[in-house]
Fold these 3 entries.
Entry 1:
Amino acid sequence: MKTIRICHLYGNLMNTYGDNGNLLMLQHYAKEAGYDIVTTMISLNDDFSADDYDLVFFGGGQDYEQKVVSQDLPRIRDEIAKYIEGDGVMLTICGGFQLLGQYYINAAGEKLEGMKILSHHTERQINSRFIGDIEIYDEINNKTYYGFENHNGVTHLGDDLKPLGRVVSGNGNNGVDKTEGVRYKNTFGSYFHGPLLVRNEWLAKHIIDLVIQNK
């Protein structure tokens, strides 16, 4: 049986609001497609090699855990960039999405350096959060996604980036430009918690299809 190799990036630190449910959905659909699954957690001080994985999942975390992870990321930054630029398939949620970018200003006003692989950056809101149901429309795939957002971060995409979807209702990346999440090559990011893929089955299958196409 063919095998899909999954990296759960900082899975012991970055898992808020049930984000690990996304990983369970990906494992389920990979098995349904006839693949054996090997999942490896990569965390603090572990090495990451771009050639070792077919799928990477990077979930969200609280500000403390996100600060710890941001300090560890420079060790593996170049291999993560190699993986993304090589069309590796990656799903990131909230903090994971933020840390792919240039920087993140957390609720305490601290600037956490991102991996600077993608061009977006994230500021903070003062005494406010985006909380509630959200609906977005994926213009590339003609699909509507439903979810729940809960984030203080206000993210602005660079000109070279596409959103995961356009906001139909809710706030999305920043509450202004009607974008939600990011799409770059085979890398996806979103603020949907709860988790994203449980309510949006098509996207889970699409991600696995991309992994299989790369095999």
Entry 2:
Amino acid sequence: MLDYVRLEVRRTLRDRGFVIFGIGMPVLMYVLMTNIGAGPGGAGMAWKTASMVGMAAYGALGAAIGTGTGVAEDKQLGWLRQLRITPLSPVRVVVGRGLTGSVTVLPAIASVLLVGALVNGVRMPAWQWAALAGLLWIGTAPFTLLGLGNGYRLSAQSTGMVNTGCMLLLSIIGGLWFPAELFPGWLRSLSSWTPGNRFAELGQSVTQGSAPGLGTVAVLAAWLALFGGYAVYAYRRAARTV
């Protein structure tokens, strides 16, 4: 299965669209929001740190959901049918795809954190940098499963549009672009139940020197179970027709 994971990771990283939009876009948005968009002198350090977490989460979320787009394209090209005649079991294929998605989110997270440190001068102890990257990495699991579910359930054309819509909706309502504290009361309450919002809270808690709250972990675990069930259902439906 490791050979399969390595193959999928190489395929993803060779995709110029993924490199430009999956890695370059969050970095560009972070620089614009904290420097050019903030006027002379740039934004304060608190906003640079919060925005760094938000943009790293946004990039990781997009890369995780984008895993499903590759699955839909493979399904259309007959790659899934080829995999079914190999010794790989269906479970190992799905797990391998999930691991691929987990690996390909790392460049997006690392790029934004690196720009935060080198360009915006964000400073934290080494353990906080490691914990921040680790939690953002682990926290992408629900979004990878959502993307896989869309990829197995929908056509290649539909998956791309649906995944883009999911990414934007979860990012904006989750407060990854702008702080949820600026939202109206009803939207702020809704945001607190979304996976994007709790995903960003994983990182924000680390930058504030504390562990994620139990409520944050519980909400993310519930979304993980929901999206996991959706991915399994979608795969079973696809297996009957592919």
Entry 3:
Amino acid sequence: MGSLLESSEKGKGDIVMKKSTYKYKNGLTIHTLLIIGSIFMFIPFIWTILTAFKTLPEAIQVPPTILPENYNFSNFTKALKSLPFFRFYFNTIAVIIIRVIVSTFFAAMAAYAFARIKFPGRNIMFMFVLIQMMVPTQIFIIPQYLIVQKLGMLNSIGALVFPGIVTAFGTFLLRQFFMGLPMELEEAAIIDGANKWQIFTKIMLPLARSGMISLSIFTALFAWKDLMWPLIVNSDLEKMPLSAGLAQLIGQFFTDYPVLMAGSILAITPMVIVFILFQKQFISGVALSGGK
């Protein structure tokens, strides 16, 4: 009897050992793959930094060199003198602030209506919102350009903000948050005499704060890296954001790659600093939007 118990305990121990060994090997494989993938993703970024410190002959020589022979900081001063970078920063920050505030508020109003107010055709209208998310944004460029032109907004900050003030993605994301809130809150507010606007602004908006933060993060990222639309609507250098202004360093027949890379580093540095400072909020925002 004693020997049977001992063999049973030994068998259980072997199974536990095999499971822990399998988990260790599985985790090691996943971490190895993730590290290899991270290295491949970092290579372009590291190459950009190293090229920013090279001279032009070093940057274009064949075979290419990895490390610069002498670290050349003059590329950064050339980039700053070639373009009005501080004006680009101002334009970009202005566009981000306006887009984040306006688009988040509009998306919240539309999402609340689709989630909590019953009206004829609600589901059909929301279906069109979803369809818009599936259509490539390039299709809307010509109609949007004609609207901006008719409104006389070309070469202005308003032209940069215009396409981003209403987003189907934001409406969809916040609708999911509003649908998850208990109906009892709304019913209690109605009993207390609150109207729809008071319920929306004083009860629903504060409760959907995490969703609005997630949407704000995505809106800011999209506005920061948006390139095609600013190049189409703004030809005035003083009215361009960073993404479009940086494209002016690319020549038709010749491009000074070290200066271009130095300008790229100047352009991404503020967003990298913001990401480092608010890393937790960025990750939680992505996780929340993915979970919804």
